[in-house]
Task: inverse folding
């Protein structure tokens, strides 16, 4: 790889992308970032990066941003559980990914790390931890986000097989921690719980991982990952009840004790989505979210630990950093 050649990071204004950019800078790399014209620059304003303006729908801007780059970290994605116009999400996550990968091939980029998601993976039928080989099909994907990430990962793998794209795929689980400016759906849950506004919970589970560990996993995948392989970048499997208990302890609040069956929340999701279609604001509870909550989204990062040397910290560290950052940002008391 060309010495000191720039590395392009897409999505650097976002949660995971900004963490990847910071990790690269910490290693002394020359970092270029691609931002949409209207993107917030809050997460990159203090970073010594070369900012290029463009969009995944603009082929010329992609080729210009990649010119001279030795590596590409494609982190950008439209991550929302509910979206008023699914076509826009497919355009960004699927067609945009394909266009960027084709531009990387045209520009001779030597290494690509594509940020997929555990959303594109299958779930263990017994409620245990799934891995990279757990079977999944497009029909298993709930909602436009999961479907778009599944299709985008398929597009990347097709280009690896058919045209030799030098790409490694990483599948982060549920990142938590500082600089979740939007915030993400999980960040919204942490804000609500730390503010004492979540009186109840459902019986589900998530795999939580510190966002900075996810970023480090990206760099390890670039260095040690096998082309065409996928690597889960996860952390700790926890039930939602336990997650909310830990957030309550950090925030000095009482944890919610009321467990609700999913059917009891369905009418609230219908009302929330109806309101969202009028206001345009993402609802806190959605039907797709409830469908996903029927399954514990537990995963193992054993392959990344074994092959990449990936070593995530305990989930409590990410939760503590998230609550502290949201408080400093004025998002919760």
Result:
């Amino acid at each position: 790889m060309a010495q000191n050649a720039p590395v392009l990071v897409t999505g650097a204004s976002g949660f995971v992308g900004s963490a990847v950019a910071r990790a690269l800078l910490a290693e002394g790399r020359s970092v270029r970032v691609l931002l949409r014209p209207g993107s917030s620059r809050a997460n990159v304003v203090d970073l010594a990066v070369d900012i290029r303006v463009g969009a995944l729908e603009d082929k010329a801007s992609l080729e210009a941003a990649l010119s001279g780059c030795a590596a590409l970290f494609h982190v950008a994605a439209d991550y929302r559980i509910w979206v008023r116009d699914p076509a826009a999400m497919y355009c960004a996550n699927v067609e945009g990914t394909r266009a960027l990968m084709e531009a990387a091939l045209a520009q001779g980029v030597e290494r690509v790390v594509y940020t997929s998601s555990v959303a594109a993976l299958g779930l263990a039928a017994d409620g245990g931890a799934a891995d990279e080989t757990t079977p999944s099909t497009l029909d298993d994907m709930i909602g436009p986000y999961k479907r778009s990430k599944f299709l985008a990962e398929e597009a990347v793998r097709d280009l690896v097989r058919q045209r030799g794209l030098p790409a490694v795929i990483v599948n982060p689980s549920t990142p938590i921690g500082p600089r979740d400016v939007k915030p993400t759906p999980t960040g919204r849950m942490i804000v609500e719980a730390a503010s004492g506004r979540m009186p109840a919970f459902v019986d589900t589970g998530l795999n939580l991982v510190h966002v900075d560990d996810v970023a480090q996993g990206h760099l390890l995948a670039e260095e040690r990952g096998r082309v065409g392989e996928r690597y889960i970048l996860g952390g700790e499997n926890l039930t939602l009840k336990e997650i909310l208990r830990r957030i309550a302890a950090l925030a000095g609040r009482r944890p919610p004790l009321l467990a609700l069956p999913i059917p009891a929340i369905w009418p609230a999701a219908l009302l929330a989505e109806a309101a969202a279609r009028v206001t345009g604001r993402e609802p806190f509870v959605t039907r797709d979210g409830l469908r996903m909550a029927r399954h514990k989204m537990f995963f193992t990062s054993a392959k990344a630990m074994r092959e990449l040397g990936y070593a995530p910290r305990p989930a409590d560290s990410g939760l503590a950093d998230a609550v502290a950052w949201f408080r400093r940002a004025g998002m919760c008391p």
